[in-house]
Amino acid sequence: xxxxxxxxxxxxxxxxxxxxxxxxxxxxxxxxxxxxxxxxxxxxxxxxxxxxxxxxxxxxxxxxxxxxxxxxxxxxxxxxxxxxxxxxxxxxxxxxxxxxxxxxxxxxxxxxxxxxxxxxxxxxxxxxxxxxxxxxxxxxxxxxxxxxxxxxxxxxxxxxxxxxxxxxxxxxxxxxxxxxxxxxxxxxxxxxxxxxxxxxxxxxxxxxxxxxxxxxxxxxxxxxxxxxxxx
Length: 231
Ligand SMILES: C[S@@+](CC[C@H](N)C(=O)[O-])C[C@H]1O[C@@H](n2cnc3c(N)ncnc32)[C@H](O)[C@@H]1O
Fold this sequence. Notes:
Layout: H1 3-9, H2 11-18, H3 22-29, H4 33-42, E1 52-56, H5 62-70, E2 75-80, H6 83-92, E3 98-102, E4 115-121, H7 129-142, E5 143-156, H8 160-176, H9 181-194, E6 198-199, H10 200-210, E7 214-221, E8 224-230
Parallel strand pairs: 1-2, 1-4, 2-3, 4-5, 5-6
Antiparallel strand pairs: 5-8, 7-8
Helix pairs in contact: 7-10
The site of S-adenosylmethionine has 20 residues, from helix 2, helix 5 and strand 2.
């Protein structure tokens, strides 16, 4: 097994180990975190009432909680690779409408045309670009006619200069918000080991190629980008 494959397997171990402190840490370290989560709902049409929702990378449930509040009668399938994050999520949100699935995004299998809405927050960047491309193709198949994909994630800038500038400004923000230097270093190590940031242009290409009829960027701040797509 090569070194990189080994690191990839550890993403669950990393999130297991920080599951108790994650909810507070992410609010401190991600600029405009709450606004970003809310941005996933802003462009949903007023008459769009999803019955079945898929959330990729529920983590400790920050988005799961919001989507369950917004669509209390919808059946939510929440996927994550970390058992401890799923346990934390379950302890915060208990509802018979939420089914938790422990799985790697690369291994998900769901029936075709099932989900009216697919949501995700800062999770898909943990898989490599070739796997992202396959994931968007699968999601398109799993979505019902006119289904919506709404997700936010960390994207690379279109040039190294822009990308590095984003990271510099992110560090200034995190330190100002109370992140310690150790915490910042911890995220940077995590980024090196487990993150595969890609550009907005690549995401548009993959999503359109998967068959979505439209895709638009509805919010962007530094790395954090919200996309809205319709099947
Ligand atoms: C940064 S957290 C985001 C959690 C939550 N969505 C939020 O906005 O706070 C990323 C989540 O993705 C999960 N994850 C990372 N790689 C994954 C993979 N390959 N398959 C499934 N889940 C994965 C992690 O376990 C973690 O809970």
